[in-house]
Amino acid sequence: MVSKHEILSLMERYDKDALAITTVCSHSSLQIFDGARKEGFRTIGICIGTPPKFYDAFPKAKPDEFLIVKDYKEILSKTRELATKNAIIIPHGSFVEYLGVGNFQKLKLPTYGNRNVLEWESDRDMSRKWLEAAGIKMPRQIKNPEDIRSPMMVKYYGAKGGMGFFVVKNYSDFQKRINRTEKYTIQEFVLGTRYYMHYFYSPIKHDGYSLSKGSLELLGIDRRVESNADEIFRIGSPTELSEAGIYPTFVVTGNLPLMVRESLLPRIFEMGEMVVEKSLELFGGMIGPFCLETVVTDSLELKVFEISARIVAGTNLFISGSPYSDLVDEKLSMGRRIAREIKMANETGMLSDIIS
Amino acid sequence: MVSKHEILSLMERYDKDALAITTVCSHSSLQIFDGARKEGFRTIGICIGTPPKFYDAFPKAKPDEFLIVKDYKEILSKTRELATKNAIIIPHGSFVEYLGVGNFQKLKLPTYGNRNVLEWESDRDMSRKWLEAAGIKMPRQIKNPEDIRSPMMVKYYGAKGGMGFFVVKNYSDFQKRINRTEKYTIQEFVLGTRYYMHYFYSPIKHDGYSLSKGSLELLGIDRRVESNADEIFRIGSPTELSEAGIYPTFVVTGNLPLMVRESLLPRIFEMGEMVVEKSLELFGGMIGPFCLETVVTDSLELKVFEISARIVAGTNLFISGSPYSDLVDEKLSMGRRIAREIKMANETGMLSDIIS
Amino acid sequence: MVSKHEILSLMERYDKDALAITTVCSHSSLQIFDGARKEGFRTIGICIGTPPKFYDAFPKAKPDEFLIVKDYKEILSKTRELATKNAIIIPHGSFVEYLGVGNFQKLKLPTYGNRNVLEWESDRDMSRKWLEAAGIKMPRQIKNPEDIRSPMMVKYYGAKGGMGFFVVKNYSDFQKRINRTEKYTIQEFVLGTRYYMHYFYSPIKHDGYSLSKGSLELLGIDRRVESNADEIFRIGSPTELSEAGIYPTFVVTGNLPLMVRESLLPRIFEMGEMVVEKSLELFGGMIGPFCLETVVTDSLELKVFEISARIVAGTNLFISGSPYSDLVDEKLSMGRRIAREIKMANETGMLSDIIS
Asked: Which of B242, B259, B296 to mutate to test the interface with C (most CBs of C within 10 A)?
């Protein structure tokens, strides 16, 4: 992994009045560019082959400049060019996935957030260790598939965006569906309703909901729309369909906006707080946006089935603000919040606290 | 119940230039405080033990002051203190539930709305009488559980927030699930899609959609998200699951925003109108926000399965305005609409028309 | 059909400084009037019997004037009166449906959009021809009901708003449910999640996402709420219910807001582009708002099951802007976009390009 020392010396040569917010043209790039522009930054969009034409339809979110690469790995050899343009990298799910965790950690460019979070987040065992150590309740996990006696969610290790998830009810279901050449986890299917909480942790802002260092915000909540699980009931129940070899799948195709019962907010903030505090202890802190992916049960318990340690696509819903962020500031998208953080850090000489 | 006369004499000693919008820190308090602040009011949040830290994360919705109590009943002994602070109470679902209907009616503080509505609303038989007398179509109710021949929703009397609701299809289902020590109603399960309409009735505003006295607004629509009923289909059908002793439950965990077919608006306004007019006749009027909880069937009929006679949590979605309220005024949340009503009543000497 | 020549000579007598945006009081009229008002137009609402009272509740969306008719057919005999008021007709789904396609095409009033689209859109065979010729993937269609071996959606020809749609799994299902006196199509039921894309095509605007002539915008996405299909799972699976003679129905009762995965946007714009380009070739172009009604499968393929060639009611959600339109301009509803187009065309002498 590139050392923080290297990044900081690289940044010494940056023109701090001309920082360019830079990300890959996908996932949540529209709001990242829109937010950066609103905070006064130049923007660079990294794309493959040719600039995506669709940005022409969104003048407020079109990057000032495109950096064209043949494939995402080529970004690694363009770091010098990007550094001369004072690029600050904003990671998002597709960025990390396309480049690969290992490559992303080697990227010699100032990157918003703490890259140490990646090894904790990308491995299901380590993320469980982190969250449970923080006091978060997670769905029960079982090791031996023969112990499956109730609905369980099976997830392959590398599975992204819900691809490669499936539900089984017993060992024989499991045997029918598993691909034994891949690593998997087996997790209790928690009954309830899903809420994806969009937190923002700032280590440099001290007013607001304060933590041992910095403060915590909640800027929105969404529910992922999963294909085909969200609509498959229209043609049959899981059992009926499985007889025809049709199974629910959990590929994320989009997002819809939600509010949660206000009486759950104290617990929701506590959860965010515990996860950040533990991250400070374990690896120097998870910085910026993160998402706890939860199920709220009918006894109003919150169980976290996954964590995303960067901007999630569900925040795309709130490009002009959410019912939560509206209580913080007007028109505050997550993309804009990130840009504002970098601006504030730059103005106060604290970039080294939020960059790695 | 505290008499209106008492409340009005109490209010005579109020400093009308320093009214403080006051509510319990839960349910819809964020928008109530945010709306009050936007209309220029001081705000007081009543909470148990210590001020909830989560308000620090929402600077626009943090009350100016917290009143700390050991338990909600203690509010009854703090009325003098609150009166010296010129407190106007805004009731919401949790406020009334935590304090209890009886205690709430005894509360010696000016309270927004007509407290007489409580006895009509909190009793399922009386609310049905009211709504049916108003000409509202409700799901058929049956007395004898042996008559259950199609899907029916069973609700215990005190059941709040969807806890203690369940669906049965026949008498044997019913026998398996009922707790005979509790009072219940049995209501037809109406097939369709749910819409929760957020109305606002002002007895003192005379332009707009006018009634025999005052006028009616529609400020938003939501759908409640119910755990686990909204996602249980992912693992099995009701029949399949019941064999494993798993049943759908209807606990409200949050809300999502909706629009309704525009061609239904005439009927939706008529329904609101009829319910308000009947309330004026029966008990002097239901004042301020109320919600008709409806199912729209596939023949585009609207059936009302419940009424809430105060601000509902679904309005939390629209802190910066809904597609409906945007056609009334900019950034008009229900919380802000309430504050604006109190402001207008105060300025025109009509507080006694909206307070009890 | 009324000729474009007739319409253009009629418009020569119009007072271009006093154009009146005119539509039928239903469907999406609130945002059409609100948008027109915001762009500085007078507005006329056509209604039956008496002016609908509900507009009084929405001061920003109340038309300046009502034109009262006994029934919709009477509009045909009021064209002279409307022409003296410089009326420009904005068609929407209910307008066309109430008047009938044939009558609508005969209407002697300047109408926003290209009326030639109607014969292509209103016939399921012709719309399929158009879309497939454009390179759009649609659900497989079968002619012979005996070939039904998997879930299929049967739609009667005239079916509107989802009324008269049903799902069958085999020939015996089909026989049980079909009304053989009506014309129908049988279409594969594509498993996935539905997204209704709100496009806007301007033949006179040349910046932005440019086409061979003019440019394309994406202003929002919704999902239709269908009664009872969206909630029927709460009481049973399709098979369980069919035994009791209860079937899912697909009547649109409202809409909820959605975002789609950002990585699908290039494909979504391509699809819009291909459909517009083919329409230019086939019948002089589909002008203004249109909607591709799609299913996103779990392999992230988009299949279009229908097209609407005018403003759809799902745009009602975004009266003050959507997360997509916010990246184009502030508070840009589809209704306002239409008004702005007419304004721009009027100012630049290009009304003849967008009127028929």
From this structure: B259
Q: In B, which residues are within 8 Å of A238 by CB distance? A: 234-237, 240
Contact call for B326 and C317, based on CB within 8 A? no
Query: Which CATH architecture group holds A1-110?
Result: 3-Layer(aba) Sandwich (3.40)
Query: Which of B210, B217, B296 is the closest to C253 by Cβ?
Result: B296
Over 80: is that where the pLDDT of B158 sits? no
**Domain C124-137+192-226+253-353 sits in which CATH superfamily?**
ATP-grasp fold, B domain (3.30.470.20)
Distance from CA of A169 to the nearest CA of C (A): 18
Q: For every one of its 356 residues, what pLDDT tens digit does chain A have, with 9 covering 90 and above?
A: 899 999 999 999 999 999 999 999 999 999 999 999 999 999 999 999 999 999 999 999 999 999 999 999 999 999 999 999 999 999 999 998 889 999 999 999 999 999 999 999 988 899 999 999 999 999 999 999 999 999 999 998 876 777 888 999 999 999 999 998 888 999 999 999 999 999 999 999 999 999 999 999 999 999 999 999 999 998 888 888 888 888 999 999 999 999 999 999 999 999 999 999 999 999 999 999 999 999 999 999 999 999 999 999 999 999 999 999 999 999 999 999 999 999 999 999 999 999 99
Parallel, antiparallel, or unpaired for β B42-48 and B20-24? parallel
Residue pair B325/B336 in contact by the 8 Å Cβ criterion: no
CA B261 to chain centre: 23
Is B26 within 8 Å of A263 when comparing Cβ atoms? yes
**Inter-residue contact B174 to B168 (CB < 8 Å):** yes
- Was domain A112-139+191-225+254-356 assigned CATH 1.10.490.10? no
Given CA atoms A147, A149, A150, A155 in this order, what sign does their dihedral have?
Answer: positive
Using DSSP's 3-state secondary structure scheme, residue C333 falls into: coil
Which chain B residues contact residue C317 at CB under 8 A? 257, 259, 323
Give the distance from residue A3's alpha carbon to the nearest chain C alpha carbon, in angstroms. Answer: 32
Q: Domain ranges in chain A?
A: 1-110, 112-139+191-225+254-356
Q: Which of B52, B237, B317 sits opposite A259 (nearest CB)?
A: B317
First to last CA, chain B: 10
A237, B232: Cβ pair inside 8 Å? no
In chain A, what residues touch C167 (CB-CB under 8 Å)?
234-235
CATH entry, B124-137+191-235+253-350, from 3.40.50.300, 3.90.1150.10, 3.40.50.1370, 3.30.470.20: 3.30.470.20
In this prediction the ipTM stands at: 0.96
CATH 3.10.20.30 fits C4-111, yes or no: no
Separation CA B289–CA B296 (nearest Å): 21
Treating both helix axes as pointing N-terminal to C-terminal, what angle do B124-133 and B265-283 enclose, rounded to 10 degrees? Answer: 110
| Record: contact B28-A260, CB cut-off 8 A | no
Chain B nearest CA to C192, separation (Å): 14
Interchain proximity A239–B235, CB inside 8 Å: no
Choose among B30, B59, B228: nearest Cβ to A191. B228
CA-nearest of A199, A202, A218, A219 to A210 is A202
